[in-house]
Amino acid sequence: MSTFPDYYQILNIPKTATQDEIRQAYRKESLRTHPDRLANASPDEKRRATERFQAVADAYYVLSDPKRRKEYDSLHSSRSDRTGDPSSSGSFFSQFAGMFGGARPGAGAGAPQQERPDAEGVFADVFEELLRPEVERVAPWWSYFGAVCGAGLGFIVANVPGLLVGGYAGNRLGAVRDAKGKSVAAVFNQLGSTDKAAILRPSQRTRQ
């Protein structure tokens, strides 16, 4: 029989923690356990960090929502096998899927199951203000290219005034191309491990 994940213990908070305390605890633990901080880690260290990072995201997903937290607490108080071991969170969302609107626990193999939260997605949502300044440093090639092309066409059509208008319009169109379909999380995931580690390094911004 699997053990029951103690999400309060995983986030290192008391059961009486406020929503703000839950958020701050998630920020601290997710930064500490994010696998991309371990640029030179062994595969086993990466695996354990990833497991811990996912469990921290699971904990935040459950406890940050008042309804999910209430449903979780009803089970939490009745279980004697609670543990802060990150591996205990693995089966939670399939075993107790009915809590969050998924399939009934014990339903057949073809029944839909509540999916675990995407750890990187949770992280990006909470840390968007941290990640955005860094990922926006990605070179806006299409913005530059659009400005040059627009300026050239504008100059042909209307000399200097056309150059200015065309350059601005081309730059804006290029910026749309740069940003289209790319969330902060998506751009962050495309960065190299060194850049990710630098972004994730604790700073004053994360301690506020």
Write the layout of secondary structure elements.
Elements: E1 4-5, H1 7-10, H2 19-33, H3 43-63, H4 66-76, E2 82-83, H5 92-95, H6 119-126, H7 128-135, H8 141-179, H9 184-190, H10 193-200, H11 204-207
Parallel strand pairs: 1-2
Helix pairs in contact: 2-3, 3-6, 7-9
Concise description?
The protein has 208 residues and is mainly alpha-helical.
Features of the shown structure:
Helix Hairpins, two-stranded parallel ribbon, 2 domains, mainly alpha, 11 helices, 208 residues
Write up this protein.
- It comes from Lyophyllum shimeji (Hon-shimeji).
- It holds the Pfam family DnaJ.
- The structure is a single chain.
- The chain is mainly α and 208 residues long.
- Helix content is 62%, strand content 2%.
- It contains eleven helices and two strands; from the N terminus they run E-H-H-H-H-E-H-H-H-H-H-H-H.
- A two-stranded parallel ribbon has the order 1-2.
- Helix 2 (19-33) runs antiparallel to helix 3 (43-63) and helix 7 (128-135) crosses helix 9.
